[in-house]
Amino acid sequence: MVNTILILSYCFLILSILGTLYRLVKGPSAPDRVQALDALGINIISGIAIFSVSSRNTGFFEVILLIGILSFIGTIAFSRYIERGVVIERGQPK
Amino acid sequence: MKVNDVILQTYTKAVAFIILIFSLYLFLAGHNQPGGGFIGGLMTSAALVLLYIAFDMKTVDNMIPIDFRKMVALGLTIAVFTGFGSFIFQVPFLTHSFGYFRLPLLGETELATAVMFDLGVYLTVVGGTMTIMLAIAEDDD
């Protein structure tokens, strides 16, 4: 029963990743691609969660939190670059 | 033009501390669970990079007055002197030992000298990563 649910969720996850990959390749503008990358990171997080359930292993829980943080910082950096042209600003001299 | 990004800055003030605590957890959990000095250092530098992105470089330099190049030297020194410490007990270089101690509030705890070496790795990784990031961001256009 649980196995069937896990395999089914793997299948839907693959469909969802293919959808975001389509937007990543085809996306007309750069913000589309950034959003597709963010959604892809979340899909990978859920994939790792399903994998750690199916392999009965708690060793991947740190990876989930870690990919969440890294995907968040990557999205922030990309959107800052699109908006301003620089990632880290110099700041006004006092 | 003054751009107002109050959402990002307010969010960063909360999230940076969560990432720092997570990196401390990864650093301390490295002996028995996944984690260790390398990934803990990378997470700490991720929190610092988030601060640098949300605020600008001058503000964060005033907030955290740390020279990251000196941090690399400090980490390497700690790692080497952990190795030299084994000479006091007439054992080969970098021999580690551990013991069980009864600490207040924590109870029976295993303390290992490998943590000192891991601390050196941690400081070196944080210093190296932040040096690379700031050196790239600092160049004039």
TrEMBL record, chain A:
Keywords: Antiport, Cell membrane, Ion transport, Membrane, Transmembrane, Transmembrane helix, Transport
Membrane topology: Multi-pass membrane protein
Major place of residence: membrane
Transmembrane feature ranges: 6-25, 37-54, 60-82
Ion transport found in the keyword field: yes
Subcellular localization, as worded in the UniProt entry: Cell membrane
GO molecular function, one term: sodium:proton antiporter activity
Family: Belongs to the CPA3 antiporters (TC 2.A.63) subunit F family.
NCBIfam families, per the entry: PRK12600.1
Record's protein name: Na(+)/H(+) antiporter subunit F
Species per Swiss-Prot/TrEMBL record: Ammoniphilus oxalaticus
UniProtKB/TrEMBL annotation, chain B:
Cleaved signal peptide residues: none
Superkingdom to which the source organism belongs: Bacteria
Domain Na+/H+ antiporter MnhB subunit-related protein: from-to ranges: 7-131
One GO cellular component, as annotated: plasma membrane
Record-given protein name: Na(+)/H(+) antiporter subunit B
Taxonomic lineage: Bacteria, Bacillati, Bacillota, Bacilli, Bacillales
Topology versus the membrane: Multi-pass membrane protein
Subcellular location: Cell membrane
Keywords, in A-Z order: Cell membrane, Membrane, Transmembrane, Transmembrane helix
UniProt cross-references to NCBIfam families, sorted A to Z: PRK12573.1
The species this protein was found in: Ammoniphilus oxalaticus
One Pfam family hit: MnhB
Transmembrane segments: 12-30, 36-55, 71-91, 111-137
Family from the record: Belongs to the CPA3 antiporters (TC 2.A.63) subunit B family.
Matching InterPro entries: CPA3_antiporter_subunitB, MnhB
Main location group: membrane
